[in-house]
Design brief:
mainly alpha, 6 helices, extended
Length: 177
């Protein structure tokens, strides 16, 4: 009766099955997917607003021009995802049984996030970037708990090694297992 699904399989396969076997499951299932739609829509609005505001600030564009530019960019960038479930459904970018979303997830989760976190960390802690003293001064601005200065060695040397290990293991898991 229950599958061992995860990700989109959990939400769109297992949960509807679970709701169908509950008393009042149609009502609870309808409410769940309605609220999930509201959460997704509010997230999309918040992210899109951030993109528009950033473009307006950096390029000194009007709101209309920034909105149109970001709309077109997102339309183009989301096309592979949309086509991955129909026209490109036979395309297996990472081997048998994979889809376009798996490639996008690999690019983001195994490349951009660990490498971006490492660059950001090195920028904050290194003398070649912002520098530790500037980082501490900014982090300790305002009231509340102060950033522990004893973490400097850990953040400068250990965490970047951990992040490089995460990056390396992502490739090992994907291509050598």
């Amino acid at each position: 009766m229950w599958s061992r699904a995860r990700g989109r399989g959990l939400i769109f396969v297992s949960l509807p099955n679970m709701f169908m076997h509950m008393s009042g499951g149609r009502i609870w299932g309808t409410l769940f997917f309605l609220f999930m739609s509201f959460a997704a829509l509010s997230t999309v609005v918040a992210v899109f607003e951030h993109l528009i505001a950033n473009t307006m600030d950096r390029l000194e564009w009007s709101r209309t021009k920034s909105t149109l530019f970001n709309f077109v960019a997102l339309l183009i960038l989301s096309t592979p995802c949309a086509l991955g479930f129909n026209v490109w459904s036979s395309f297996a970018p990472l081997g048998e049984g994979t889809i376009v979303l798996d490639l996008e997830d690999f690019i983001l989760s195994n490349n951009l996030l660990p490498l971006g976190a490492t660059v950001y960390l090195l920028f904050c802690c290194s003398r070649y970037g912002w520098g530790w003293d500037n980082f501490i001064k900014e982090a300790d601005t305002g009231a509340g708990v102060k950033f522990p200065k004893g973490l400097r060695f850990y953040l400068t040397w250990i965490v970047p090694l951990i992040m490089i290990g995460v990056f390396t293991m992502g490739y090992y898991e994907k291509f050598f297992k």
